[in-house]
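Q:
My hope is that you can spare some time for a protein that puzzles me. I hope you can help me see how the letters and the tokens relate. Thank you; the sequence and its tokens follow:
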Amino acid sequence: MSEPTAMTIVCDDCGTTQPELSTRTRCTCGGLLLVRHVPTVTGDALRRRFDDACCARPSRTASGVWRFGEIVQPLAMADAVSHPEGNTPVMHRAALAAWAGIDGLVVKHEGYNPTGSFKDRGMTVAVTQARRLGARAVACASTGNTSASLASYAAQAGIPALVFVPEGQVAMGKLAQSLAYGARTLMVRGDFDDCLRLVQEAGDALGIYLVNSINPFRLEGQKTIVLELLRQFDWDPPDWICLPAGNLGNTAAFGKALEEAHAWGLIPRLPRLAAIQASGAAPFAAAFSRGFDTLVPVQAETLATAIRIGAPASYRRAVRAITATNGVVLHVEDRDILEAKARIDAAGIGCEPASAAAVAGARALRSSGVIQPTDRVAAILTGHVLKDPGIVERMHGAGGLIEAPNRPVTIDPTLEAISAVIDG
């Protein structure tokens, strides 16, 4: 890159510009902040830069996030806190595509990131910014994946981390990561929305840098999921991108990525976004059905803990993303999520329950005729199967959460017993 991309931080609501080294995640008017970029080149020239930026040679970045650094955080590219992250695969499985009724269905698995979820993409940028600011500590509210990611990146950066999680509502695979990586883990007697309210109050009062998805730099990292996907499609976009929707940070980030990519000539058209919620935690879907009149928070309840959020913080940004891409929002029942998870797992891919909402939603949209059988559809799997091993035990053990469980078989220590299992 010959010269840095121009970057400004502005308020979504009032348009006020913020200093690049501001510790604020909200404007004084209460609006969320947004990073805006003006690339020095566009179109084919910008595509070539991204194509050449990663990954084989030592002089190039190994990160699938920082390869796009000039439209993420151009001022921090030389000193990023990176594992590295990104470079996650796109996979096609014929059996899964057939089950969904969509020949061109692929999944992009963000569970292949260092801590097992897409959160690493945003966290590498947010924690890099925190170090540039000289933050005394970083903090987040989390249903598990954000806290695991923050704990890891903060440990790498040498910054104290506080994570606020709802007591008794976080899968042990995620909680274990926060503890192992050294974050001070605060179990809040409440739900995620209580945790987010509390951590925002703490940030304002105690000068702690907040790195939830309302942080503008988190969104810059998370938008690289889409940029990388478009590059994997050779900059010829799929017809649909389906994703799980909880706090709506990814929905907002995906919309931003697509609008920018189209405006800068990286892609010729916008794919449609489909944001999928669990029926027990579906305020965004309900608002969509009413023409996005207003957000009505709910008391969230779903087995898909990563999207068990009743008052999504990025609602207004997500509305823009769905509107700009002529997208849709729908909800699916937990039983449909678990059935999709069982199919994804059986295809040798695996994912945590919230991820499976994307595939369950794609199947539902195909069944209703919104998605056509010949459409090219990319479903985003947001977390690794080992993020929630407890749900796997309940699915295939005595819990009986699915119709055809793969239960363990107790056998005698003989070849005949093995043969009987194979024949059976």
About this structure: The longest strand covers residues 272-278. The first helix runs from residue 43 to 52.
